[in-house]
Amino acid sequence: QVQLVESGGGLVQPGGSLRLSCAASGRFFSINAMGWYRQAPGKERELVAAITSGGNTNYVDSVKGRFTISRDNAKNTVYLQMNSLKPEDTAVYYCNADIRSRMFSSGYDYWGQGTQVTVSS
């Protein structure tokens, strides 16, 4: 079985920074793409940032220039560095990973438990 464990959420003032971490554990062959989603009350879940196994990245327009996604393949961990945080960034952030159970198999989506990020004065 595979688990994704998130950490790093919390309360921060506007303009502040947080770094989210998500570590995959369990038995699996490899991790393909990894990403971060968020969902605010009354809103649809949206993809915030994603990173491929080769390091290519994509961001939603609202966070470009402020957020940076990265990964450490040796640690099976993905990070989201969030700078210049705004109140509208407030949401529950969910880690996502496309994980292959064995060589040549297709990936399956796994989700973290979610971590609350609150940006407020």
Per-chain topology:
Blueprint: E1 2-7, E2 10-12, E3 18-26, E4 30-39, E5 46-51, E6 57-59, E7 67-72, E8 77-82, E9 91-100, E10 107-111, E11 115-119
Question: Could you explain the architecture of this structure?
Answer:
There is one protein chain. By secondary structure, the chain is mainly beta. Helices cover 0% and strands 57% of the residues. The protein has no helices and eleven strands. It has strands at residues 2-7, 10-12, 18-26, 30-39, 46-51, 57-59, 67-72, 77-82, 91-100, 107-111, 115-119. The strands form two sheets. Strands 2, 4, 5, 6, 9, 10 and 11 form a seven-stranded mixed beta sheet that branches. It is elongated, with a radius of gyration of 14 Å. The mean pLDDT is 96.
Name some characteristics of this structure.
elongated, 11 strands, mainly beta, 7-stranded mixed sheet, 4-stranded antiparallel sheet, 121 residues
Quick recap of the structure?
With 121 residues, this protein is mainly beta.
For this structure, the quaternary state is: single chain
Gap between N and C termini, in Å?
Answer: 41 Å
Beta strand count: 11
Mean pLDDT value: 96
Radius of gyration: 14 Å
Which structural class best describes the helix and strand composition?
A: mainly beta
User: How helical, in percent, are the residues?
Assistant: under 10%
Number of helices: 0
Largest sheet: 7 strands, mixed
Strand content: over 45%
Characterize the overall form. elongated
Q: Low-confidence stretches at least 5 residues in length (pLDDT < 50)?
A: none
Q: Give the SSE order as H and E letters.
A: EEEEEEEEEEE
